[in-house]
Amino acid sequence: MRGWIAGVRPITILPLSNDPALASLWGSRALQPYSELFEAGHVIFAEGDPPSGAFLIESGRIEVSTMQLGERRVLGELGPGMLLGEMAVIDDSPRTATARALTACRLTRIDAAQFAERLTAADPVVRALLMSQLTRYRSTLATLTGNGSGRNSPPAASPEDAGAFDKIRLESELRAALERKELEVRLQPIEEIESGRVAGYEALVRWQHPERGAVSPSEFIRLAEETSLILPVGDYVLARVCDMLVELRRRGRRPLPFIAVNLSARQLAEPDMVERILDHLRSRDLPPDRLKLEITESLVLDYVRIADLLTRCHAVGMHVALDDFGTGYSNLAPLLTLDFDQIKLDASFTRALDRPRGVALVGVIVAMARALDCDLVAEGVETREQRAILHRLGCHYAQGWLVGKPVALADVLND
Ligand code: C2E
Ligand code: MG
Ligand code: MG
Question: What pTM was computed for the model?
Answer without folding.
Answer: 0.77
